[in-house]
UniProtKB/TrEMBL annotation:
This is Sulfurtransferase. The keyword Lipid biosynthesis does not apply. It comes from Mesoplasma tabanidae. InterPro entries: Rhodanese-like_dom (IPR001763), Rhodanese-like_dom_sf (IPR036873). Residues 15-99 form the Rhodanese domain. Pfam families: Rhodanese.
Length: 99
């Protein structure tokens, strides 16, 4: 795991600390897989990266990035970290690990 990857327990702890959950899957993908986190914001990949500065102008925004297995969300979190967002994490194993 990278220093920005979190497990299920850490996920819930960060939620309590005010972190926003960003779901980077395609619109409607939650219905196809049956997986979702009810309080998440759906901003599909790769638009979430292209519009990062517009969507989250505050680089100290507290974000947890999720997708099905962690691939797209991992790429998103890594890119955000490289862009200078220190409080961005990815749920290791994706939404399947929340089951």
């Amino acid at each position: 795991m990278n220093n920005y990857e979190i497990n299920k327990n850490e996920f819930y702890k960060l939620i309590k600390q005010g972190y926003k959950v960003i779901d980077v899957r395609s619109v409607g993908e939650d219905k196809m897989t049956g997986l979702s986190y009810s309080d998440s914001y759906n901003i599909p990949y790769p638009g979430v990266i292209r519009k990062a500065k517009e969507l989250f102008p505050n680089k100290n925004e507290k974000l947890i990035i999720v997708c099905n297995y962690g691939s797209r969300s991992g790429l998103t979190a890594k890119t955000y970290r490289q862009m200078g967002y220190p409080n961005v994490y990815v749920l290791y194993g994706g939404l399947y690990d929340l089951k």
